[in-house]
Structure formats: C-alpha cells, structure tokens
C-alpha cells in the first residue's frame, strides 16, 4: 500500500530525559552495559567505542490515550505510542528518555490499535493540534491524567536501576536531573534555534526550532547529549560548591574531589554523536552560557588544588631523604 | 571541504530482508487427537480444506494485479502440548492424505518451534514486544503485560475488593476498547508458570506462528524460523530431530508472505480470535515492517497497515 506508517507532517516533537549516576562501584564495560540495557530479547543493544564508550538500548513503546497538556486550556485528546529508551555513557552515566511526535491533524476518532502500532513514536491528536499551546503545556508540565513523558522515562529508569548487575554502591552522592524538551518546526530558510532554561533545582527545559525534514532521531540524540553534559556540569558544580580549599581542612576538601577525577572528568565530550546539521545549536550554547568554558574552568580548578596539595607532600618526601 | 566517514557496525541497527510470497496458505493444524482418528480423519480434513484452498488461491490471484501470485502452503504439527508418535510414522501418512486430496504441503512446521526455534526463544521475544492497547485515560502509567501473563482487548471488570470500596458496590462491566456500541470483551491467557517452567498458551504460539509466516520477526536483525530443505531420505524417529520448519517441496514459493490465510475447522475460532487480539497488540520488528512495505509498494501489491489485518481465515464446518 505504501502508506505504511505514513502520517501528516510532524508539527511538534517532545520528550524528557532523566540522567543519573549508575549505582555501581565500578563503571560497567560494554558487555555488562549490553545486559543492563537489553530491554528486548530479540534486539541488539547498540554499542559504540568511538569517541567514547556508549551503549543504547532498543526502543520500547508505551500506548497512551489521554489529553495533551495545553497552556490555553484547550482539550486535545491524543492516541498513539511513546518511545522509551535508555543509554549508558562510559559505563557510568545512565539516561532514560521518552519521546514522541505529533502531526498537525489526526483522525477524528480513535483508530484500531494496529493503526498506531505501525507508527511507533507517533501520538495523533483527534482533530487539529493547537501546536503552540500544547508545546507550552508540555514544557510547563500537565495536570494529573494528561500525557507526561517524564512519567514514562521514570518508569523505565526505575526498572533499569533494579537490574541485578548493579551493586547499588555509588562512588559518590549525586542527584538526578530531568531535561524536558519540545521541538517545533522553523519557517523555511531559517536555521535551527535553541532556548535552554535551568528551571527548578533539577529540571531543565529546552525549546528547539528545527528545520523541516530534520531526522527525529537526530533531535532526540541532541537532547540526550545536552542532558548528559548538563548533568555532568551540575554534578561537578555541586561537588565544588562550598569547598573550603584555602582553609585549614583544605586537604580534606581536595580529597573529597577524588570521585570527580575517578569518574567524571573524562566524560566531557559534547557533540560526540550529534548530527552535523544540529551541531550549530551546541555551538550557540558554547557561546552563551559557555558549557565547556565552565566545565574546563572547574576541571582546571580541581587539578590546581590537587597540585597544591601535592607540593607539601613532595617537600616532606625530599626532606626525609 | 574535507569529508570523513567513520562507521562502527556494532553501533548501527541492521535488519536482514527475506524473500516474500503473496500468500502463505495454511492447510491445517494437526493435534494428537486428529492423528489418533486415523488416516480417515486426515482424509476428511483435507477433503474439507480443498475447495477453500482453491478459493484462497483464486482470491490471491485476483489481488496480485494480473501477475501470477507466489503462494506457499504450510502445515503445523503440535509437538508442544502433547508428544505423540514419531515424525517417521506421522509425516508420510499426512503427506499421502494431502496428496490424495490434490493438495501439496510445501512447508511443515512444528509448534514447539514457535516457542524456541534453533535456540532462539521466539515466544519470549514476542512477549517482550507486546504493547497494550491503552484504554481511554491511559497517560503513561501502566504495569507491563509481562507481569500478569494476560492480555485483554479492553478494560477488565474491577476486582471485587476495589468494588467493595465503591459506595455503590454495583458490578462494573468490562469494556472492549474498540467496541462498536456493545463490547465483545476477551481476556487471553498468554502463558502459565509451574515449578519454574513457563508453558506458552496455544493462542500465543499461534500468534507467533502468524508473525513468522508474515516475515515480521527477527532475532538481532537476523531471520528466524528459517526453512531447511528436506533431504530425500525418510523422517526421523524423534520430533526434536525434525527441523522447526522443513521445506518439503524444493520448487515452493517463499515461506514468508505479505498475507496469510489459514483453513481450519470451526473449533479454532476462539483461539484465532485470541490470536487477533495478540497480533493487534504486538509491535513487530520495525526494519522488517519497512521492508515488507517497500517491497509490496514496488510490486504494486496492497498490504494492510495493521498486522492483524494481514491474517485471514476460513473456518470450515466440523470439529
């Protein structure tokens, strides 16, 4: 028939990524990562070793039939499937995400379920989609009973964190972050745009403007990459926050930073798997607020403090001769 | 501008494609009781199947758009729920009776192959692909079907305890999600677990059987339930020594097909209703689905979007 999975053009894509430290004393190798992320018996976990160790689970689906949140209070019922998947970077940072896209209009009535299953990751509105209002609503978060991609991401994360291969011994304390995103198409001739907001404590919202015809997987990967690096930065900032380097207990403060050296500092690698067409968005964030600039400053600070603490030790060693 | 290409094969998904017929025509299921009924029972079965098989061929020809349709026939033997006799004894009788009715069995399948075929746990894989049809009001918070082993086509009657907490206490009817005004509610048992051993239900294995015939399953991108050619010798004395899928006719059209048609006695109707409910809630391999769509498009053959709609049946009167 050739119409398989064919839907109206996407006007809105949305998702949420939850990022956390994998609760294991040792980072997992790719083999072990393959076991943890094997969400389906018959599908491979995709594994990549360049430019860093990265494993990606197969996509799984969750069926939904509920209202979409809308900032103007419009009632929009939508039916379809939301994709959930997980990724592990360097065997250390676990991400569980969910995402879906919405066409501008859908059938007036709910279709047989088979119609939705051959359109994985598409949630169709019943009737016309008020795209702007729904984008706002999704970013703000809906009311109970409205579609919540965060809930689906959290469900997957909870399931993964129970895996028997995880010894539940985290090498240091850290918090989860949530990155919620929506993408809307930009008019012809316009380049992509990004609006990154550090909302509450652990919530970031990202609003993307995407040229039409951009591969949705590329958008999802960009958001996963943003979430990963935002988590790294957030975690390192928190580690250094309140450190008393110059004081009498300076040596202890520096020792407390050791997990950063052991587990975090080698993970910074923005755009490792981001589509070239979208890397301009990363560059914009590098310009302002300057993610990498802040990261490198923090890392340099840790290294300087470590070096400072090493000098007295060196002196002791020399005088002891 | 310098262009560099770097690839890692383990980092890219892959789905191997399969040759496809227009129609996979199933000429029957054989259970122990059928075999115990002697060759006469098989003879009656094939005599009943014959006219409907002809009709299915005629229908496939009409749908092929003027071209000669590729049609393969198959037959399923139950060696999963009961082990009876031996292939050496059963298969020659079966083939002789089919031939007497003027029917050719191209492929012979064992039902236990739908559970595990060539060490690939097909049934378990399909169980991991169930995506429940969400009743209205589902916003992403549902326990996976994997925990219960039951799959319904709607919302069950609330449990009595939950009802006791309602003030009215009145009985609540179940509700079929895709009901046309009135519900036909069905709840399907997919498996049971006893002493650490899982037994898949007959409808669940029959759903796996349909999905393999439709060429919509893969294992890590590779084809599953692959036919092996039958050597000219006889048949083994153990079912396990028989390939899960055996190609008996060397010149047969491909086993996998755009559509399936099964000619069965009417007692199979409830089982096949359950099969439809399972097919309607199974997310098949995305790569395989795409390949079938592209190929049928090139050939100008209409294939329904919905997987459940690709299976059709003829129920002939009888038991």
TrEMBL record, chain A:
Fetch the InterPro entries from UniProt. SCO2521-like
Top-level lineage group: Bacteria
Q: What protein is this chain from?
A: SCO2521 family protein
Q: Tell me what organism the protein belongs to.
A: Streptomyces glomeratus
UniProtKB/TrEMBL annotation, chain B:
Q: What is this protein called?
A: SCO2522 family protein
Q: Which organism is it from?
A: Streptomyces glomeratus
Lineage at the top is: Bacteria, Bacillati, Actinomycetota, Actinomycetes, Kitasatosporales
């Amino acid at each position: 028939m050739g119409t398989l999975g064919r839907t109206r053009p996407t006007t809105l894509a949305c998702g949420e990524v939850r990022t956390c430290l994998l609760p294991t004393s040792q980072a997992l190798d790719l083999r072990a990562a393959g076991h943890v992320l094997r969400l389906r018996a018959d599908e491979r976990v995709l594994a990549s070793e360049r430019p860093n160790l990265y494993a990606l689970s197969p996509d799984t689906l969750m069926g939904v039939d509920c209202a979409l949140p809308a900032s103007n209070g419009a009632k929009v019922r939508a039916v379809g499937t939301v994709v959930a998947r997980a990724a592990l970077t360097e065997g250390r940072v676990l991400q569980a995400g969910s995402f879906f896209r919405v066409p501008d209009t859908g059938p007036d009535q709910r279709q047989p379920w088979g119609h939705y299953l051959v359109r994985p990751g598409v949630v169709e509105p019943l009737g016309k989609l008020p795209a702007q209002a729904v984008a706002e609503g999704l970013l703000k978060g809906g009311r109970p009973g409205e579609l919540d991609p965060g809930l689906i991401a959290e469900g997957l994360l909870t399931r993964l964190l129970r895996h028997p291969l995880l010894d539940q011994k985290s090498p240091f304390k850290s918090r989860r972050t949530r990155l919620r995103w929506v993408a809307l198409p930009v008019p012809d001739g316009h380049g992509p745009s990004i609006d990154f907001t550090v909302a509450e404590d652990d919530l970031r919202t990202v609003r993307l403007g995407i040229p039409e015809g951009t591969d949705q997987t590329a958008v999802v990967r960009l958001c996963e990459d943003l979430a990963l690096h935002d988590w790294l930065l957030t975690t390192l900032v928190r580690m250094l926050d309140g450190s008393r380097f110059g004081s009498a207990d300076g040596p202890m403060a520096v020792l407390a930073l050791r997990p950063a050296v052991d587990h975090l500092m080698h993970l910074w690698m923005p755009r490792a798997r981001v589509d070239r067409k979208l890397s301009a968005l990363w560059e914009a964030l590098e310009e302002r607020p300057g993610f990498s600039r802040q990261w490198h400053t923090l890392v340099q600070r840790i290294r300087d403090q470590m070096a400072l603490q090493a000098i007295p030790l060196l002196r002791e060693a020399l005088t002891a001769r | 501008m310098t262009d560099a290409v770097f690839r890692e094969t383990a980092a890219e998904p892959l789905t191997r494609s399969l040759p496809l017929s227009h129609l996979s025509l199933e000429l029957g299921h054989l259970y122990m009781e059928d075999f115990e009924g002697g060759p006469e029972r098989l003879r009656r079965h094939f005599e009943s199947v014959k006219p409907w098989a002809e009709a299915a061929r005629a229908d496939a020809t009409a749908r092929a758009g003027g071209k000669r349709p590729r049609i393969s026939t198959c037959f399923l033997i139950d060696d999963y729920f009961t082990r009876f006799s031996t292939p050496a004894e059963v298969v020659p009788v079966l083939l002789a009776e089919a031939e007497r009715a003027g029917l050719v069995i191209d492929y012979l399948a064992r039902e236990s192959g739908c559970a595990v075929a060539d060490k690939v746990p097909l049934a378990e894989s399909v169980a991991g692909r169930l995506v429940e049809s969400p009743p209205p009001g589902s916003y992403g918070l549902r326990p996976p079907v994997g925990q219960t082993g039951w799959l319904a086509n709607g919302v069950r009657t609330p449990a009595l305890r939950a009802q006791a907490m309602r003030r009215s206490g009145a009985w609540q009817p179940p509700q079929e999600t895709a009901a046309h005004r009135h519900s036909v509610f069905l709840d399907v048992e997919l498996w049971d677990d006893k002493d650490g051993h899982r037994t898949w239900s007959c409808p669940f294995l029959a759903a796996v059987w349909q999905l393999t015939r439709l060429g919509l399953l893969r294992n890590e991108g590779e084809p599953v339930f692959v036919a092996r050619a039958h050597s000219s010798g006889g048949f083994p004395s153990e079912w396990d020594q028989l390939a899960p899928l055996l190609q008996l006719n060397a010149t047969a059209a491909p086993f996998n097909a755009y559509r399936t048609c099964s000619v069965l006695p009417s007692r199979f109707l409830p089982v096949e209703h359950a099969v439809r409910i399972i097919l309607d809630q199974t997310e098949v391999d995305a790569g395989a689905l795409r390949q079938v769509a592209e190929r049928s498009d090139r050939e100008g053959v209409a294939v329904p979007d919905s997987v459940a709609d690709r299976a059709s049946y003829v129920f002939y009167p009888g038991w």
